[in-house]
C-alpha cells in the first residue's frame, strides 16, 4: 500500500494527556455529485447535486466538531483518489472560515472493497505514528465532540491496549470505531467487519475470537436514508430555537445547506411516522 499524505495546519501537537497521539480519522467519499449519498438519492426526492451539497456541508461540520475534540490531529481518509483537489479545496475552505488550528492530513483509501479501504487508511495512520484512532464517517454532523473524547478516554484507560470502542447506529450499524495501535488492520478484511453483514455482530465476533474488550458509546444515527434526513432536519429546527440543548452539536454548515436547498419535512396526515422530505416552494 502506498502512503499518500499532505498536512494542512501547524505541526501536530500532543493532547492534555501528554505526548500520546490521539487521531480522528474522517472516512469519507469526496462530496461530488453522483459519488456520494447514492442510497439517499434513491430513497428520497434529492437529486445528485443536492445530495452532494448536503454531503459537503456535513463533511465540513464533521471537521469542525472533530477539531473541537481532544484529538491532536485529524486525518481525512478519502476516495476516489482522482478527486483529491476537490477534497483539499473543501478542507482548506473550512480551515480558513473557522480558523482551525488542528493539523489535517489527507490519506487516499486503497483496496477493492470497504474493509480493505478502511484497513488501508488505518495502516497508513499507524505508520504515521498514531497511537489511538477514532474513526467516523462524514454523515453525523450533530455528533457532540465529547463523544470523541469519551472514545479516546475508553482507549487510554485500558493499559493492556486491548479495547475496541464502538458507537452504535441504527439497524446494527456503527458510526464510530475506536482502536489502539495494537489493533491489527488486517482484522477488517479477516472478519469482514463492514462487508459481512451487521457491523456490530461482526465486531462482537472479532472481540470474542481475539480477546478484545468491547466498550460502547451512546447510540446516534448517521444520515443514510430519507428517514435519517427527516430526523436531521427536525433536530436542526429544534436546536435553532432551543434555549439550551444537550447531546447535540449544532451543525451550522448543514443547517445552511438545508436552508439553501429549501428542504422541509412534509406533513403526513393520518400518521406520525414515515414522513418524507420535500422542497419549499419559492
Folded structure, characterized:
The chain has 282 residues and is an alpha/beta fold. It has a single domain (7-223), classed as Spore Coat Polysaccharide Biosynthesis Protein SpsA, Chain A. Helices cover 39% and strands 18% of the residues. The chain is built from 9 helices and 10 strands. The protein has helices at residues 38-43, 48-67, 84-98, 114-127, 145-156, 187-190, 199-210, 226-241, 252-261; strands spanning 7-8, 22-29, 73-79, 104-108, 132-137, 163-168, 174-180, 213-216, 263-265, 277-279. It has an 8-stranded mixed beta sheet, with helices on both faces. Strands 9-10 form a two-stranded antiparallel ribbon. The protein is globular. It starts with 6 loop residues before the first strand and ends with a strand. Residues 1-5 and 9-18 have low confidence and may be disordered.
Features:
282 residues; alpha/beta; Spore Coat Polysaccharide Biosynthesis Protein SpsA, Chain A; two-stranded antiparallel sheet; 9 helices; disordered N terminus
CATH superfamily, by name, is Spore Coat Polysaccharide Biosynthesis Protein SpsA, Chain A
Strand tally is 10
Supply the number of structural domains. Answer: 1
Order of helices and strands: EEHHEHEHEHEEHHEHHEE
Going by helix content, strand content and strand pairing, the class is: alpha/beta
Average predicted confidence as pLDDT? 91
Bulk shape: globular
CATH topology: Spore Coat Polysaccharide Biosynthesis Protein SpsA, Chain A
Beta fraction: 15-25%
Low-confidence stretches at least 5 residues in length (pLDDT < 50)?
1-5, 9-18
Rounded to an integer in angstroms, the radius of gyration calculated over CA atoms is 18 Å
Amino acid at each position: 500500500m502506498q502512503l499518500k499524505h499532505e498536512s494542512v495546519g501547524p505541526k501536530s501537537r500532543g493532547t492534555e494527556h501528554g505526548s500520546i497521539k490521539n487521531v480522528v480519522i474522517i472516512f469519507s467519499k469526496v462530496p461530488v455529485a453522483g459519488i456520494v449519498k447514492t442510497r439517499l438519492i434513491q430513497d428520497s426526492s434529492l437529486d445528485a447535486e443536492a445530495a452532494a451539497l448536503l454531503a459537503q456541508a456535513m463533511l465540513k461540520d464533521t471537521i469542525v466538531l472533530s477539531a473541537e475534540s481532544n484529538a491532536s490531529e485529524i486525518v481525512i481518509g478519502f476516495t476516489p483518489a482522482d478527486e483529491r483537489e476537490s477534497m483539499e479545496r473543501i478542507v482548506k475552505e473550512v480551515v480558513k472560515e473557522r480558523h482551525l488550528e488542528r493539523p489535517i492530513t489527507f490519506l487516499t483509501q486503497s483496496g477493492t472493497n470497504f474493509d480493505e479501504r478502511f484497513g488501508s487508511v488505518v495502516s497508513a495512520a499507524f505508520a504515521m505514528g498514531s497511537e489511538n484512532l477514532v474513526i467516523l464517517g462524514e454523515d453525523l454532523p450533530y455528533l457532540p465532540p465529547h463523544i470523541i473524547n469519551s472514545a479516546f478516554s475508553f482507549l487510554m484507560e485500558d493499559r493492556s491496549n486491548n479495547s475496541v470502542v464502538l458507537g452504535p447506529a441504527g439497524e446494527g450499524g456503527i458510526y464510530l470505531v475506536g482502536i489502539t495501535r495494537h489493533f491489527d488492520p488486517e482484522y477488517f478484511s479477516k472478519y469482514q467487519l463492514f462487508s459481512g453483514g451487521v457491523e456490530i455482530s461482526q465486531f462482537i465476533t472479532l472481540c470474542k475470537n481475539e480477546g478484545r474488550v468491547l466498550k460502547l458509546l451512546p447510540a446516534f444515527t448517521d444520515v443514510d436514508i430519507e428517514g435519517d434526513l427527516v430526523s436531521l432536519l427536525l433536530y436542526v429546527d429544534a436546536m435553532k430555537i432551543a434555549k439550551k440543548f444537550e447531546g447535540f452539536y449544532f451543525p451550522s454548515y448543514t443547517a445552511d445547506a438545508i436552508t439553501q436547498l429549501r428542504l422541509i419535512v412534509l406533513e403526513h396526515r393520518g400518521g406520525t411516522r414515515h414522513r418524507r422530505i420535500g422542497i419549499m416552494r419559492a
